[in-house]
Input
Amino acid sequence: MAKLLTDSEFQRFSELQQKQSSFTITPEEADELRDIVAHAQKRRDDRAAAMQSIETFIQQFDISPDELFSAEQIGDAARTFGLIPAAKKERVLPPSFTYNGKPYQWTARPLPDDIRVPLFDAFKAGESVKSFIATLKDANRCAATIARLERETGAVYAEALLEELSVTRTQVDEAAAKLPA
Output
């Protein structure tokens, strides 16, 4: 009932309902209470009709949930209603590279020598590794990639080269702190 009435209407409704329950309500107040209830019922009916129209249009035009809501909104709703676990797991994907047209993912296992050698050589020489990185648009993965390369090689990536990747030193340091020991 509260969401169908304005704050002032709901407050007056509560006052009149209390008077009614204590049998101290006047006929004029009883009429006012009936008007408030009728107003709330009309709003409820209007809302129900609007929802029905929306459902009809969604079916008629075959609108999918991902057209109406972002993936994050859908996930939040699923968490709210207990369809998936409430805790959001931060999913960190491993660094990905391409070299000579072949994709590589740098998981817990070391990179194969056919990419590791040219990648590490370029990194240690202070050259750009932008051409190796497959996920340039993902700043977090780029930062994780540079952090891991710095740890593995002992070299520090130049600030200008970080800017080329649209990554800051702070992001690399944060990614380095998240790397497993």
